[in-house]
Amino acid sequence: MIGLLTTQRVGLSIDFRCFSFFFFALFTYSRPLIIGFLFSEEIYIIRVQMKLTIGQEEFITGLQAVQNVVSTRTTLPILGNVLLCAKGNLLKLTATDLDVTISKTVEAKVEEEGSFTMPVKKLHNIAKEVGGSQVEIKVNENKCNIQSASFSTSVNGLPGEEFPPMPEFPEQNTVKMEQAKLKSMLRKTAYAVSVDENRYVLNGLFLSFKDKKLTMVATDGRRLALMEEEVDQLQESPVEIIVPTKAIQELSRQLGEEGQVEIKITENQASFSLGSEAEGGAQVITKLVEGAYPNYRQVIPSESKYRVTMDKEELLHALRRADIMTSDKANSVKMTFSENNLKLTANTPEVGESQETMAINYSGEETTIAFNPQYFIDPLNALDEEEVHFEFTDQLSPGVIKVNQPFLYVIMPMRTS
Question: What span, in angstroms and rounded, lies between the C-alpha atoms of 149 and 151?
Answer without folding.
Answer: 6
